[in-house]
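Hey, weird one. I pasted the HutD family protein sequence into the form twice and got a warning about non-standard characters only the second time. First submission, copied straight from the form history:
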Amino acid sequence: MNNWHPFSLGRLPVSRWRNGGGETREIVSWPQGAPEFDWRASIATIAADGPFSAFPGIDRSITLLSGEGVNLSDGGQLNHRLSTVGAPFPFSGDLSLSAHLLGGTTMDFNLMTRRTTCASRVVALRERGTITAEKGGVLYAIEGDWQLPDGTHFGTGEGFWWSTSDGQAQAQWTISPLAQSQPGCRLLLWAAVTD
């Protein structure tokens, strides 16, 4: 687990949106330092109604972390109410969407993957679960205290990201909630980047 990189929400770099409607905290853009990402994970705060930028050739997934949520629509085919914390919603970055807040400010986890190089899946865990390293990924504690197989603890607003190199074995790890986390107060997001 030496290629795991810890992060916490409060220490992620903040980029304000040009339209003034929110901000993004980037967790990782892979490969690091490259002009184009294969995959990118971030946490966004949406503070006002407005457009979502289109990302042609990119598949996206958005998961509500806090707040009442947001309605996403393209004015025709797609109309989705994102209002359940921990429920991921995948969509094509080719779409030009508008976001309309259902209440106040929301915070969302975003995963983007370049369609020609990788894919993804996002899963919410409330109990002990086994994850596979895959090509890369992110763990983020939405609520509760959790433990990695090596005994490392992390809690609400904290997480880890990793990327495996070509040919590296795809290990599996069991992630467990700590005993002091009440069953109704546990929620962990696992975002896996796959081939």
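That's the output from the first submission. The warning seems to come from a hidden character in my clipboard, not from the data itself. Residues 33 and 118 are 18 Å apart (CA to CA).
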